[in-house]
Amino acid sequence: LAQISICRDLPNIEVITFSVNGISDLEPLTRCQNLSELYLRKNNITSLNELFYLKGLPRLRVLWLAENPCCGQDPHRYRMTVLRNLPGLQKLDNQAVTEEELSQALVDGVEITAPPAQRNVENGWAESTDSSIAGSTAEPGSELLSSSLEEANKIQEELGMKAVPRDKYSSFSPRETDCNRKKRNNVLNAILLLMKELDVEGLEIIQQTVARRLQAFQKKELQEE
């Protein structure tokens, strides 16, 4: 089985098993709005950008994508990218998804914003990772810092938080490249923006996750000292 165009005529289907085939295009699945479980192990999906077609499936909770070319050589990056784009999953590749993983995916995962046909892809990964996250073209370091700081402070003001001082916001390690600085700024902005959509329960989960992360960093610093 190399193509699944039949799925366009199955809007009410809830479980699909296409494992061990030659499928490479997931676009027909966009019509399956009631889909909750999707099994695609051992197919010919070469690009994780195919996840773009699954992002609009509100009930998808189980996905098995392992043993496809798009999984690449880095299992962690692969899992984080899938979870960043499909945060509603409860199980990925027969392994339960944790709240900690969903939080980490915001940092380590790659956001997919366009289908494969609109992106240059090599070995299953988008070439311009940082520009896809930022949603803009390259920007000089000083202008990037200024715009990111302004946006972050605007978001924090809406949340009733104190503005971030420029000297603290720009206190990156000398070893950090412009690319890393850009990614850090955009991750911060994204997190602050998403916080506005959370209820009390969601904010409590964020608070607990941040506390655990801070403890881990503090423990690591003490060990290095």
Automatic annotation (TrEMBL):
UniProt key word Repeat: yes
Query: Could you tell me which InterPro entries the record lists for this protein?
Result: Leu-rich_rpt, Leu-rich_rpt_4, LRR_dom_sf
Alphabetically list the UniProt keywords. Leucine-rich repeat, Repeat
Summarizing the function annotation, the protein's role is: Plays a role in cilia formation and/or maintenance. Plays a role in the regulation of cell morphology and cytoskeletal organization. Involved in DNA damage repair.
* Compositional bias annotation for Polar residues: 126-135
An annotated GO cellular component: ciliary basal body
Q: Which Pfam families match?
A: LRR_4
Q: What is the name listed in the Swiss-Prot or TrEMBL entry for this protein?
A: Cilia- and flagella-associated protein 410
Q: Which organism is it from?
A: Furnarius figulus
Superkingdom is Eukaryota
The record's Gene Ontology biological-process terms are: cytoskeleton organization
Ranges where the record places region Disordered: 118-141
Describe, as the record does, how this protein assembles with itself and its partners: Found in a complex with CFAP410, NEK1 and SPATA7. Interacts with NEK1.
Q: Does the keyword Cell wall biogenesis/degradation apply?
A: no
